[in-house]
């Protein structure tokens, strides 16, 4: 069996795209997922893309006994990519305990299991939200991590700290903390993509559901920010570019001596406003979107995008897909979804 990689949350949005990239790179991905943020038929789609059915264990990563039973079966495991977490900023404000219990709790389960089975390579799914309302618009990995604007963001900051402390204490772990900016898009095949549960919190799935007629119109949250067109600016990165970075990060870790811990911003290095994204979506898909400018959404930072120099230097990684590619792939994926949960 090729080098095994355990992928928690492997049936999720970024997880499933990473599973495909791992397989294409010669790894054998083993998925741990309880399908709270996915659907079982995503595994059928992965089988179509990979030509073989991936190994899947339906496990809640908060369940230490179940997790360690799985880990015990893969003693030739090369590493762990930990995606499994709840990630809705708004929901985390309403139900913070759920977020700390799951996001922080499951990380502790994974770290204990890695220690027990002497696994030393960890790639952790973090987020640019750790920068909070940054004083710098273009953030580097050295930009200050500020108090998060949501419990979700605080769980990511907390998890990063736990990993660092664990490495300092045990000296036998190597970790990359990958801070995603705004993942968008879908696999070019149209077979996998983002599957928001219920009403989408994020911009692009709300746009595609509006274009499909599921939502009546998009509300742009705020048109009076101090940006060129008055709307928020973000760094929207194609999910396949993001997935590929995880494979490079894992290979890099395998080449390093322990202990090791580093952080990487994963974005395009370009800022795009909400209105610019809408216009690009309309242009590449040759349609008009129904939207209005409404009130600001609390907790939104005005503008943030990534300085991606470090990821280029360390992993020799940069994005292949454009914003237009991502928005074309998102729309293609949306059109193929038979029913939303
Ligand atoms: C993007 C822009 C909104 C919806 C969050 C998390 C981050 C990551 C990605 C998990 C903002 C505007 C949105 C809508 C709008 N999540 N918007 N109308 O808030 O930048 O980042 O999701 O890993 O950690 O913080 O993403 O897509 O929600 O919003 O105008 O209906 O789109 O105001 O400016 P965000 P988003």
Write the layout of secondary structure elements.
Elements: E1 4-8, H1 13-24, E2 28-33, H2 41-50, E3 55-58, H3 64-71, E4 77-82, H4 89-94, H5 96-116, E5 121-127, E6 138-139, H6 151-170, E7 174-180, E8 182-184, H7 203-212, E9 218-221, E10 233-234, E11 236-238, H8 239-255, E12 260-266, E13 272-273, H9 274-285, E14 291-294, E15 305-306, H10 309-315, H11 323-336
Parallel strand pairs: 1-2, 1-4, 2-3, 4-5, 5-7, 6-15, 7-12, 8-11, 9-14
Antiparallel strand pairs: 10-13
Helix pairs in contact: 1-2, 1-8, 3-5, 5-6, 7-11, 9-11
UDP-4-deoxy-4-formamido-beta-L-arabinopyranose binds next to helix 7 and strand 9.
Explain the overall architecture.
With 341 residues, this protein is an alpha/beta fold. It has a domain at 4-185 and 237-267: Rossmann fold (3-Layer(aba) Sandwich), CATH 3.40.50. The chain contains 11 helices and 15 strands. It has helices at 13-24, 41-50, 64-71, 89-94, 96-116, 151-170, 203-212, 239-255, 274-285, 309-315, 323-336; strands spanning 4-8, 28-33, 55-58, 77-82, 121-127, 138-139, 174-180, 182-184, 218-221, 233-234, 236-238, 260-266, 272-273, 291-294, 305-306. The strands form 5 sheets. The protein has a 7-stranded parallel beta sheet with strand order 3-2-1-4-5-7-12, sandwiched between helices. The mean pLDDT is 96. UDP-4-deoxy-4-formamido-beta-L-arabinopyranose (WQD) is lined by residues 87, 89, 127, 129, 180, 182, 201-203, 206, 218-221, 232, 234, 274, 297, 300.
């Amino acid at each position: 069996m090729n080098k095994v990689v355990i992928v928690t949350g492997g049936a999720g949005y970024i997880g499933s795209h990473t599973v495909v990239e791992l397989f294409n790179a010669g790894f054998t991905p083993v998925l741990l997922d309880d399908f709270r943020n996915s659907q079982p038929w995503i595994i059928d789609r992965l089988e179509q893309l990979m030509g073989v059915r991936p190994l899947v264990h339906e496990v809640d990563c908060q369940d230490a006994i179940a997790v360690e039973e799985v880990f015990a079966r893969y003693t030739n495991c090369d590493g762990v990519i930990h995606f499994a977490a709840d990630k809705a900023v708004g929901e985390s404000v309403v139900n913070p305990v759920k977020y700390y219990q799951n996001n922080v709790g499951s990380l502790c389960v994974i770290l204990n299991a890695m220690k027990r089975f002497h696994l030393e390579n960890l790639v952790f799914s973090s987020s640019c939200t750790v920068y909070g309302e940054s004083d710098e618009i273009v953030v580097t990995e050295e930009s200050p991590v500020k108090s998060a604007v949501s419990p979700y963001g605080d769980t990511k900051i907390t998890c990063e700290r736990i990993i660092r402390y664990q490495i300092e204490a045990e000296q036998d772990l190597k970790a990359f903390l990958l801070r995603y900016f705004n993942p968008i898009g879908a696999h070019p095949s149209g077979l996998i993509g983002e599957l928001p549960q219920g009403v989408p919190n994020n911009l692009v799935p709300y746009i595609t559901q509006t274009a499909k007629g599921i939502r009546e119109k998009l509300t742009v949250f705020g048109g009076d920010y101090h940006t060129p067109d008055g709307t928020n600016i973000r760094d929207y990165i194609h999910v396949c570019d993001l997935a590929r970075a995880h494979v490079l990060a894992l290979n890099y870790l395998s080449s390093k001596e322990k202990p090791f811990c580093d952080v990487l911003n994963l974005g395009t290095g370009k800022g795009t406003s909400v209105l610019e994204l809408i216009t690009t979506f309309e242009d590449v898909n040759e349609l008009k979107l129904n939207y209005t400018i409404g009130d600001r959404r609390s907790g939104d930072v005005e503008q943030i995008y990534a300085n991606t120099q470090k990821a280029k230097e360390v992993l020799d990684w940069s994005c292949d897909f454009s914003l237009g590619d991502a928005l074309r792939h998102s729309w293609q994926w949306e059109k193929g979804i038979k029913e939303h949960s």
